[in-house]
Amino acid sequence: MISVILGMQFGDEGKGKITDYISKVYDDVVRFNGGGNAGHTVVINDKKYKFHLIPSGALQSKTVILGNGMVLDLEELLTEIDVLKVANKNINIKISANAHIVSKMHKFLDKQEESIRSNLNIGTTSMGIGPTYEDKYARTGIRVIDLSDIEILRQKIGTIYKMKKELLKDSIYNDENERENLAKDLYSLGEKINCYIDYTETLINAEYKTGKNILFEGAQGGMLDIDFGIYPFVTSSNTIAGALSSGSGFSFRKVDKVIGVFKAYQSKVGSGPFPTEIIDDDSLRKYGSEYGTTTGRPRRVGWLDIPLLKYTSMLNDVDSLAITKVDILGKMDKIKVGLKYLIDGKEIDYFPKKLKDFEKIRVEYKEIPGWGDMDEEKIIDQGYSALPKNMKDYLKLIEDEIGKNIEIISLGEDRKRTITKEIFN
Ligand code: IMP
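That is the input. Now the predicted structure with inosinic acid docked in place:
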């Protein structure tokens, strides 16, 4: 079985929890995009694991692969590897020789670029993601394979510095000695990850040939995709299913199943349009502890947005849906679902691209009653049949609108608070 799991909203859909839940059947878990901007929390037996680079499925798989589409902060990576090795003792860790390196200079550049953007400020995670992908596509980037060659490191750092001199003029990297220190630091960090470096595109394809089950784990969500998200309020990589091929070297033709994860409501960190945002009430943020795993920033929250989900379902060609935080939404007395986008009173049949269109959008909502507290133990024991009627109606409404089945329902952080389709039947 070859599957890909993705977020369908603005990231933070709770993919980590779902991935961990399904990952026991997969031998290999592969991450193919993004870097330390992602943040996922997995709770197992009351113990919380927080990762940014290591995919959540790594806690249960045999092999974890960080693909070439990723951008890696080596210090963060080494810290996470230490945690992973304790949590999953026999894990085999492989890092693509082609993945790109986020250095401290990139993090500085991230902040500088944000300050220049002024009103089109994205609200990035300041993890150096954008500048690292810029260098990748400018063909000046530092790859994992470059770490073992101090001369190449010096040369690349020198080139990046020259190209971005204006942005770096207030940084320590104006000093040649600091650039030399950066090269040496990267070199010595490289020595520490050397044992994990592999030509992972060949490895993944070989694993496939021997019949291994592989899970590709997307980071962020469809609405942050560099091409299809609400540009420019996006991340710097492709976050949709197709990105697994360019980000890992494995053909999309071999994928059996695409699982789209979405939260029962929505959240977003950073700036940009958010049609179903709730402005005047922060109870959902509090109930759902909606604060960024990576930045700690309060997330913006809003109601479920059906037009947006239909769009990301199409982009990813989703086979099945997984919904998270249904328990949290139920705490609201009244629940709204954004059903349609209207501009000048007329429903639009496209997902807008102009930022000005988003200002004109009026969302048509359907209101439904909440489901309050649930008998969680009964639900864990009996599954779908024990769900409150109002919740079942909510789930059915979503399935009808999106035209896909919800196969996994998550009712809480812990692995055991998850109901799957098998239990429904
Ligand atoms: P960057 O990826 O750090 O450049 O940030 C670009 C935008 O994507 C910002 O609005 C971030 O808040 C958002 N973003 C990036 N990664 C994540 C994520 O994993 N979850 C939620 N938002 C994210």
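The first strand starts at residue 2 and ends at 7.
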